[in-house]
Write a structure and sequence with these properties.
Helix content: 25-40%
Number of helices: 9
Radius of gyration: 25 Å
Strand order of the largest sheet: 4-5-1-9-8
Structural class: alpha/beta
Order of helices and strands: HHHHEHEEEHEHEEHEHE
Oligomer: single chain
Largest sheet: 5 strands, mixed
Shape: elongated
Strand content: 5-15%
Number of strands: 9
């Protein structure tokens, strides 16, 4: 398939369609379509060539992962992202690269490593917010595939890390357990049943703005105390159905610009690709109420 020939065929097809659909035989307009098509950029622009330069490769495999074995040498921007986002002193990071450059892996691999290091601790460890359900569904399968392809993240055939997707919609009961993803048989691989996630919080939760807004605005009654909680507390109570004894240690995000307060971060972000909050047990010197 030659782009130059394909472009000419497309242009001729458009011209034939317009001239056939809108024939102009009246004397004042005769030949006007021909003049329009002959005019440069009158109907369509000429084809252009885009030269895609390769992304730079890292010199060596990163040594910051214990639970993951990367299947390929990372790009330089991925290597730098891993250095910033792994460990207990992670830093907020903005990544802006071209399509197909592995931006998802920039935050996903550190998230999986963090969950591995804190395996067995209760509560949600990563909250990832997507602008579209289709993107959340696509990446849910990718996350499940990454877990099932990493031996250290499995205990036999059972994953040590659980992933839930809370995006609303759908009818009937969703998936109650993690499964090996199978696109052919429409198996997503993550937990989608709301009641299951309410009873036992997944390590990683995928959601969207609509559901997050709904949970943030909804008043939730704590069944054990009878007290009403709102805002970020409401979101966590609705999802987890129990208090999470922790605080947001840091916010790690990709392609977004956000503020300082956890609630403000969610409400003021315009169109991020994904935001990931790390919720960890509070430091002895840090109050867990804020």
């Amino acid at each position: 398939m030659l782009p130059s020939i394909l472009a000419k065929q497309l242009q001729q097809g458009i011209r034939d369609y317009i001239e056939t659909t809108f024939p102009m035989t009246n004397t004042p307009f005769a030949g006007s379509l021909t003049s329009l098509f002959d005019e440069k950029d009158g109907v369509y622009h000429q084809p252009y060539i885009s030269v895609k330069l390769p992304f730079r490769m890292a010199d060596k495999m990163p040594g910051c992962f214990d639970g993951l074995k990367l299947p390929f040498m990372p790009y330089v921007h991925q290597e730098k992202a891993y250095e910033r986002l792994t460990g207990e002193a992670g830093r907020s990071t903005l990544i802006a690269t071209g399509t197909g450059s592995g931006k998802t892996e920039c935050f996903l691999n550190p998230v999986l490593e963090y969950c591995y290091q804190h395996n067995g601790e209760p509560g949600i460890k990563a909250l990832i917010i997507y602008p579209m359900n289709a993107l959340a569904t696509d990446q849910a399968r990718r996350i499940a595939e990454a877990i099932y392809s990493s031996p250290k993240l499995l205990e036999g055939e059972k994953p040590k890390i659980t992933v839930g997707m809370y995006v609303g919609g759908g009818k009937g009961k969703g998936a109650t357990t993690m499964m090996k993803p199978d696109k052919k048989n429409n198996i997503l691989g993550v937990i989608t049943d709301h009641e299951t996630m309410l009873n036992q919080a997944p390590d990683i939760l995928l959601t969207n703005y609509k559901m997050l807004d709904y949970l943030l605005e909804k008043e939730v009654v704590n069944k054990s105390t009878g007290e009403k909680v709102t805002s970020l507390e409401a979101m966590m109570s609705a999802i987890v159905r129990k208090a999470i004894s922790g605080h947001v240690e840091s916010c790690k995000f990709v392609r977004s610009t956000i503020g300082q307060d956890p609630v403000t971060k969610i409400q003021e972000t315009s169109s991020p690709s994904a935001i990931c909050f790390r919720i960890v047990p509070p430091h002895p010197k840090v109050s867990s109420s804020g």
